[in-house]
Design the sequence.
């Protein structure tokens, strides 16, 4: 556990020392702020709902930008050699890096907290949908990060890591459409994999166990694949 | 402290190293000497647990590097070949991070970081970003990191490559001072370096061990001939042919030097031919301007070893 914390601390330092995290956060705030304002003015309704779905899509694009450096750079610079030959387990490396990216995600979502504060100031919003919405956004963002960390382990090229990371989650984002032409068991599998369907209920104030399980298992699979990918890197 | 048994590593069909068997005693400094692509880095990567061997075993401090990788890794300090570092961290943060991974407790860590920064002359650069440091200073950071946790075994892959001569001297002295307390394995393609620092040398070529011995024994063992250098004024071809007639002379070569000729005579071992050669020159009425015995350098031995291997 100490190794995980050390690893996460190192990555957080790097995040704060480089402009990437700040730019990602700025873009996220700008776009979600735009949708939030637009929604509230249009509907005259005290809800954060309007920024959640666009927000999740912005996260889809931005999360792999947060993770693309994490393992690709280590491979490109050769620092992975020293890291993997020090007494830290592969899973501790992955967990530490993932945790650091989660902290950035949480901070980014934390910065949007003034949206609900504004709502409380001027209106009387429902607490439930706000809490579930934020939980959903955090889960979906964490899932994107885990996918991005995985693709970062596959290559020494950050751009490739970003494209693959965004590509994987984009595919899960749109895959639901295939259920119109694919039926049977396969169709059901696709239906389950479809990412937006697991996110939607969170925006409506409903927390389903199946949705939470979906995102947690998504992360578990990505985590496992990342560790395997690091292992095979040694065995090549 | 280190034992390897028939280590082999294949990259696909390519044989990088084959049958590498050697051992290193506690406190010993062992040099891994070989030209480029000999397999030095591959061997070190196996010892540090970065690469698994295709076959064979290696043990560090009694722990198998595969079966008890973590235990072995705890006892190793490693400086990889090109000294990869996190360029966006300061020297202090970098050492602090590795100190944490090495499980050094907080109080001792600060002490140790201070000590190694002193040893490696890094005190003035504690808060400098590593990316801003010159190659020589990065090498020091790599070295400081490797010795931070006072490892039983220190593995240094080409520790002096690409740094300026003054720092090379310093670094060599520093490495030499690690012997006794630490067991050191270093690789190099620079012969004087290895004979200067190491107590024992493994010469490796094209993935195979060519010889293992103490530097001085190696020269002893492999000294098939002795060299004598003569500076002579006289007809070069004639001088050479006369010299060749002397018993025990194996080969004579010459080149022009300052209007005279410099002859290099390879002679069989065992008899000192200097007097006889001088006699021949003087007897013929040629001018003997200089005579000098040239011992064999490790460099020659090395060339011999590798060429023998190629045949
Ligand atoms: N990852 C790799 N894949 C394929 N060949 C490799 C790899 N690493 C090293 N080699 C080859 O193995 C041989 C030994 O390399 P190396 O151990 O780096 O030698 P040295 O460190 O003595 O220069 C070289 O011919 C090199 O090209
Ligand atoms: Mg090498």
Sequence:
């Amino acid at each position: 556990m100490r190794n995980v914390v050390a690893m996460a601390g190192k990555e957080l330092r790097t995040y704060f020392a480089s402009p990437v995290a700040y730019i990602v956060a700025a873009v996220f705030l700008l776009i979600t702020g735009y949708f939030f304002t637009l929604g509230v003015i249009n509907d005259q309704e005290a809800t954060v709902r309007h920024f959640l779905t666009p927000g999740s899509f912005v996260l889809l694009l931005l999360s792999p930008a947060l993770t693309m450096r994490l393992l690709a750079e280590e491979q490109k610079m050769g620092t992975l050699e020293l890291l993997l030959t020090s007494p830290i387990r592969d899973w501790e490396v992955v967990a530490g890096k993932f945790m650091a990216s989660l902290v950035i995600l949480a901070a980014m979502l934390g910065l949007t907290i003034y949206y609900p504060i504004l709502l409380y100031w001027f209106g009387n919003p429902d607490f439930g949908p706000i809490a579930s919405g934020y939980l959903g956004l955090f889960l979906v963002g964490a899932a994107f990060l885990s996918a991005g960390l995985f693709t970062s382990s596959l290559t020494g090229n950050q751009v490739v890591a970003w494209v693959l990371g965004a590509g994987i989650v984009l595919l899960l984002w749109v895959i639901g459409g295939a259920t119109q032409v694919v039926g049977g068991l396969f169709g059901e599998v696709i239906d389950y994999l479809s990412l937006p369907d697991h996110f939607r209920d969170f925006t409506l104030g409903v927390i389903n166990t199946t949705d939470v399980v979906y995102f947690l298992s998504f992360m578990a699979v990505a985590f496992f694949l990342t560790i395997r990918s690091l292992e095979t890197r040694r065995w090549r | 402290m280190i034992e390897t048994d028939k280590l082999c590593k294949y990259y696909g069909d390519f044989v990088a190293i084959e049958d590498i068997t050697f051992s290193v005693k506690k406190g010993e400094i062992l040099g891994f000497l070989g030209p480029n692509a000999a397999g030095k880095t591959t061997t070190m990567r196996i010892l540090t647990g970065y690469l698994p061997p295709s076959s064979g075993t290696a043990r560090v401090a009694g722990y198998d590097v595969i079966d008890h990788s973590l235990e072995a890794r705890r006892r190793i300090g490693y400086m990889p070949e090109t000294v990869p570092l996190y360029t966006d961290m300061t020297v202090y943060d970098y050492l602090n991070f590795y100190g944490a991974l090495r499980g050094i407790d907080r109080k001792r860590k600060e002490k140790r970081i201070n000590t190694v920064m002193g040893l490696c002359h890094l005190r003035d650069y504690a808060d400098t970003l590593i990316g801003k440091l010159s190659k020589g200073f990065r090498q020091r950071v790599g070295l400081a990191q490797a010795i931070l946790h006072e490892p039983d075994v220190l593995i240094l892959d080409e520790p002096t490559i690409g740094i300026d001569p003054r720092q090379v001297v310093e670094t060599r002295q520093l490495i030499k001072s690690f012997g006794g307390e630490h067991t050191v394995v270093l690789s190099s393609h620079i012969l004087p370096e290895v004979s200067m620092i190491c107590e024992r040398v493994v010469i490796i070529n094209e993935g195979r061990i060519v010889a293992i011995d103490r530097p001085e024994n190696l020269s002893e063992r492999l000294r098939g001939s002795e060299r004598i250098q003569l500076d002579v004024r006289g007809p070069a071809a004639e001088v050479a042919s006369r010299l060749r007639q002397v018993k025990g002379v194996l080969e004579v070569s010459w080149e022009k030097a300052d209007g005279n000729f410099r002859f290099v005579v390879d002679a069989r071992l065992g008899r000192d031919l200097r007097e006889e050669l001088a006699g021949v020159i003087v007897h013929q009425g040629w001018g003997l301007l200089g005579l000098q015995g040239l011992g064999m350098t490790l460099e020659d031995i090395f060339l011999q070893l590798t060429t023998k291997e190629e045949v």
About this structure: The longest strand of chain B covers residues 14-24.
